[in-house]
Amino acid sequence: MEFIDQELVQSSLSLKLKKRARLELLCLSAMVIVLTLTGIVLDFELLGNIATFTLAHEDWELDEIFMFILWSGMAGCIYAIRRMQDIWHLNQEIASLAFIDPVTHLPNRILALERLSQILARAERMQSQVAVMFLDFDNFKFINDTYGHIEGDNLIRVVGQRLRTILRKGDTVGRLGGDEFVLVVEYLDEQELLKAINRIQTLQTEAIKLDSHELNIAFSVGIAVYPKDGNNPSELLKASDIAMYKAKQAGKGQLQFYTQSMGEKLMERYELEAGLKTACHNQELFLEYQPQLCTESQRITGYEALVRWRRNGITIPPLSFIQVAEETGLIQSIGDWIFTQALEEAKTFVEEGQILAINVSPCQFSQPGFVNNILKRLTQSDFPPDMLELEITESALVQDESQAMARLMELRKLGVQVAIDDFGTGYSSLGRLRYLAVTRIKIDRLFINTLCESDIDQNMVKAMIALADNLGMDVIAEGVETAEQSDLLRTLGCNLIQGYFFSRPVPAAKLNALKTRYYTDVSVTKSAARS
Ligand code: C2E
Ligand code: CA
Ligand code: CA
What Å distances lie between residue 358 and 299, 383, 443, 477, CA to CA? Predict the structure, then answer.
């Protein structure tokens, strides 16, 4: 077993036991001294009296009894000392298993937090500040995958040792697990903290020699400070973890101090995630539909279903929660709900020749069984496949190209139509577009916003229309807000539009009113705009 620095493994319990042992030893020594002194002062001839008494009662064998007591006492003392040694060794082993990380021989999470609470108690008395630093390697998984776990552990050990050497004796370095370390630095003057930070940063510039390789490492560090960011170990560790997460987002080898707004944002995100988990079940989600229009025939050609979430009387727009749903995997169940609901509701308003467009996020699209799931839902709600259009963004199509192409073919075989959403904002190569079984491109709102003012946007839109034409695809412009935009688009060759100009997204029940509105309101608006 490795030697353990006893200073290192001082938990509150062991400190308490040590204190008690010290007190008892002191009391017993005082008792012995007092009794001895009393004997001397009173001139008490204890041994002499015992000897006289023993001689007077020789037949009681008192001398043998006294000797027995004496020998037993001495043997008892030796036995007690030996057992105390055993307990000391056992204690060391237990402490090592419970408190010391076997790879780095540094305090593990339990002991590091224990030390932190002791340092905080001292800081309160001394009116000092304490920085809790959460350190996490960048790309440690890559190192593990490339060089293997043994080299990964070696690296962790070397970095742990270096961290220990660059901090002062009173500071703490602990391994929280995996590639995470916590560093606790107590300081009175901010310069002390800055020095410690500099030393940590310098570590990243030093190459680390392992058995067979030399590696350069980088790590992200989040710092929370007592008493500003928290009063107890768990608050401070959480705050430093949040700051570390922020540092990671900023890139490799970054350092970030905790700010309150970070915590608030995380709390918001946590509440959103928790609420979203029960949103479907609590019937808080609902759909709105935005009509798509052919400006030539003046007919509604379809509707795009857009999800909304009403929570505590407030409607939350999808941009605020779709990404969270994607990151947490909840998009699968929410997506299923959207499909079932949209296909059921649409039966009441989608007419012959119109389509129902449903948005599909990249992670839904890449899910195995995606096409079968669509087929199942179409069959269940008895909805004609050729009246369904899936809106897929360019990013979903570039993730796994060959799989995406195959999936699109399968959808087309079913008769389902596919539109590339937000066209022009992603990174899909135009060359590849011709191999994709796509029926429509949706020109993003970005190009329509300033269409009337910008020649560049007009040329871009013209190019997109020509491209769609050449590839035999439909083209629709989204985000059309004015009569001028609609007219210009028509002149450029795009008759299909969607946007606030005709209608905002509305609940299914309000769609019928829109059908009759078009021929009056919009034509009035348009002629008014022309005059
Ligand atoms: P998107 O697919 O590009 O949807 C169009 C967005 O533009 C909608 O925002 C719509 O309300 C808005 N919009 C339509 N016309 C106009 C206009 O004239 N001017 C302006 N400024 N905006 C207009 P919404 O409903 O907030 O949805 C935002 C995004 O959230 C959608 O962008 C889509 O990416 C996502 N989303 C919405 N519903 C769903 C859904 O059911 N499933 C998935 N996966 N994503 C959805
Ligand atoms: Ca869309
Ligand atoms: Ca769009």
Answer: 20, 13, 16, 16
